[in-house]
Amino acid sequence: MAILVVGAGFAGTVLAERAAFAGKQVVVLDRRTHIAGNAYDHPDEHGVLVHRYGPHIFHTNAPHVADYLSRFTAWRDYEHRVLASVEGELYPIPINRITINRLYGMNLSEEEAAAYLDKVREPRDPIRTSEDVVLSSVGRDLCDKFFRNYTRKQWGMDLSELAALVAARIPTRSNDDDRYFTDSFQKMPRDGFTRMFQNMLDHPNIRVELGTDFKEVDRSHFEHIFYSGPIDEYFDHRFGKLPYRSLSFQHEHLQDQQQFQPVGTVNYPNDFAFTRITEFKHLTGQTHTGTSIVREYPQAEGDPYYPVPSEQNQQLYKQYQALADAETSTTFVGRLAQYRYLNMDQVVAQALVVAERHGLGSVREPEPAGSAA
């Protein structure tokens, strides 16, 4: 009997590749008409490589994850930088010494910038909400200028209504490091994410069926199911729907314009209905006479992107988790199946652990013959 993998994003594709490499026959389903999940990229009608579902930047501190994916792609160096548009000017985000000096017309050293942040922060004890996190980190003025309204657009909620873990992911620096991430491995797949996924799924033991819904499949034909879709959907929303925040993407091509903005992404915390604009040529290094950008508009309805972190939603998820734990023939893996935000490398690492637990091999095994480079 074959193994069924539901979802052709990172979680499902890693498990499919590992299972195939271990000699299993694998069927991969995805209701979308393409592989690679939200990391899907493709040339737009003008020939610019774009990310359909917003920017995906690969970064990790896990060497085994980088080594594993390197079997299926070559890389190009890329360190993501983000600016925030505040009062008509662009400032580095995460907040650093340059941000503070430019915003307030100061010339602080690193030590003085650290002292300034100590002075303006508003310690909160206990830390319960994202507002507590931000105020205790950067104080009220920086909070209101860079975070409060961005959060309101992104989540449809105020910082004071959001769980602390949302803002806990945002660092603050007193030095001049303007990289958005500080991971030891920061690169982009040289030929794009979709090509990397194609290489991972290019195995005689793998059959991919796109535009296919899991509900339409006879599960009795499979010895095991790896499921990376929404956990509440698997159980027919028995306890009600788990809330997600969605996005609408407005793609635009600008002809005869080499560059639209100075960095890959510019955040708009206070102006406009969108939260950010990404220009893809920064990410890909592509040369083209024009450029392509995307604006992101958060919304309540649509494809599920971000689990809404609240105590009530976690309690609802735990009811579904109890059902999932009782399943013997299905393993739930990935963002949607676990109702939590995970970076791409975290999903890969998790899928590799799941594969090893199911006897599908270890990433310490030798590189498969004929793997892509």
From TrEMBL:
Signal peptide: none annotated. Its cofactor is FAD. Its EC number is 5.4.99.9. The keyword Flavoprotein applies. InterPro entries: UDP-GALP_mutase (IPR004379), UDP-GalPyranose_mutase_C (IPR015899). The keyword Signal does not apply. Keywords: FAD, Flavoprotein, Isomerase. It holds the Pfam family GLF. Residues 145-341 form the UDP-galactopyranose mutase C-terminal domain. One of its GO terms (molecular function) is UDP-galactopyranose mutase activity. It comes from the Bacteria. Belongs to the UDP-galactopyranose/dTDP-fucopyranose mutase family. NCBIfam families: UDP-GALP_mutase. PANTHER family: UDP-GALACTOPYRANOSE MUTASE (PTHR21197). This is UDP-galactopyranose mutase. It comes from Terriglobus aquaticus.
